[in-house]
């Protein structure tokens, strides 16, 4: 009877299901993540970082531009504020991913983060090459973005790995 109802039986992956109802409702244990060490800390750091830069871009666009490119004036504040709005939207994804246990959502948020950092790395590199000036803030930004890409991709693959059978 327990086998027919699906209560307490093991599937091919060694997972034990509580009931067919819990599987139908989406509370399946299979989707829970065995989290790699430091994942939640990285998610918190990312969410805070995205939110902080977004608020700075929205409220103080001149200072953000000056910090990165060592130039005092920017021709228009609108692109920087649009950038801040986009970052604020990504930060909402990061904050929500921090509070979920579903592997798919965590992986998508890490992939979003890695793609954002890769695009920012490429855009900053092209901007520096075009202006033929090396700003200290921009070089620091490039190094930090490369590091953030590596960390995000590391966690992306760690979350996606199948747990080892014991």
TrEMBL record:
Which is one Gene Ontology cellular component term of this protein? membrane
For membrane topology, the record states:
Multi-pass membrane protein
**Location within or outside the cell:** Membrane
Question: Per UniProt, which keywords does this protein have?
Answer: Membrane, Phosphoprotein, Transmembrane, Transmembrane helix
For this protein, the parts annotated as crossing the membrane are: 41-60, 80-98, 110-128, 134-157
What PANTHER family does the record tag this protein with? Answer: TUMOR PROTEIN P53-INDUCIBLE PROTEIN 11
Name recorded for this polypeptide = Tumor protein p53-inducible protein 11
Source organism of the structure = Oceanodroma tethys (Wedge-rumped storm-petrel)
What gene codes for this chain? Trp53i11
């Amino acid at each position: 009877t327990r086998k027919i109802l699906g209560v307490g039986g093991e599937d091919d992956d060694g997972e034990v299901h509580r009931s067919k109802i819990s599987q139908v409702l989406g509370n399946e244990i299979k989707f829970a993540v065995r989290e790699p060490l430091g994942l939640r800390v990285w998610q918190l750091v990312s969410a805070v970082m995205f939110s902080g830069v977004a608020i700075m871009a929205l409220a103080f666009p001149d200072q953000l531009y000056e910090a990165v490119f060592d130039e005092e004036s920017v021709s228009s504040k609108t692109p920087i504020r649009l950038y801040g709005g986009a970052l604020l939207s990504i930060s909402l994804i990061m904050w929500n991913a921090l509070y979920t246990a579903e592997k798919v959502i965590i992986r998508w948020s890490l992939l979003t983060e890695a793609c954002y950092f890769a695009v920012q790395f490429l855009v900053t590199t092209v901007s520096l090459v075009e202006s033929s000036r090396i700003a200290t803030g921009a070089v620091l930004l490039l190094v930090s973005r490369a590091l953030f890409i590596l960390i995000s991709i590391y966690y992306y693959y760690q979350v996606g790995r199948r747990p080892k059978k014991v």
